[in-house]
Write a sequence for this structure.
């Protein structure tokens, strides 16, 4: 399978815990995006990488959120001290320099 | 401001009916892109079409067709002879000019096609 992989598919965590999600993009894609989607809403941009450089972060990405893309390959998104408002679907997409996104299946986070 | 409006929250049709999903966008850019994505219950966003702002030709792909009208800032999507498998949430998105290539999304239209 050469699509975008996200792990885990589902995560339930207690408020205050830290969580980390992983995204494996299509190998030849140098851009990687993270979006967040809550129920009944469209996706909202969080951040993006070109190769290993994080080039833009949304104001939605508070200092509890951090994303990395070491070596320009897979990416991780970590949320520290989770809050109930963090419950959402976290979507990863990759592209080769343009708008031709391929999305992963997402990680659904539930904070209880 | 850049914005995408999908005024129809939910649509329910009977199989084989035609259905049109509306999308209106706002941007001051002269160069931009418009997209439609499908999100079935499994959650993965599936790309359907990309249109750039200089190409107003309508497009048809099987039972799907798209009508882009710059004069009304609309990019509507029609499914002809709908099928149960078309049931999903459909999103319209705007890709402004700029190097970051991030998308601005509408709220989506939930389409239910009933047998």
């Amino acid at each position: 399978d050469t699509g975008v992989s996200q792990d885990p598919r589902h995560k339930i965590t207690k408020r205050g815990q830290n969580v980390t999600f992983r995204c494996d993009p299509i190998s030849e894609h140098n851009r990687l995006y993270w979006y967040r989607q809550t129920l009944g809403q469209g996706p909202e941009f969080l951040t993006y990488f070109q190769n290993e450089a994080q080039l833009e972060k949304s104001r939605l990405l508070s200092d509890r959120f951090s994303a990395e893309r070491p070596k320009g390959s897979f990416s991780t998104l970590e949320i520290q001290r989770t809050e109930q408002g963090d419950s959402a679907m976290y979507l990863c997409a990759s592209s080769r320099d343009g708008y031709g996104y391929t999305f992963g299946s997402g990680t659904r986070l539930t904070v209880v | 401001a850049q914005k995408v409006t999908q005024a129809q929250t939910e649509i329910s049709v009977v199989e084989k009916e035609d259905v049109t999903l509306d999308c209106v966008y706002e941007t001051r850019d002269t160069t931009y892109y418009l997209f439609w994505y499908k999100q079935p219950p499994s959650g993965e966003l599936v790309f359907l079409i990309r249109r750039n702002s200089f190409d107003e030709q309508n497009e048809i792909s099987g039972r799907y067709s798209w009508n882009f009208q710059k004069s009304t800032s609309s990019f509507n999507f029609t499914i002809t002879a709908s099928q149960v498998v078309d049931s999903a949430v459909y999103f319209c998105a705007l890709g402004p000019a700029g190097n970051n290539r991030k998308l601005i999304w509408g709220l989506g239209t939930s389409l239910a096609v009933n047998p």
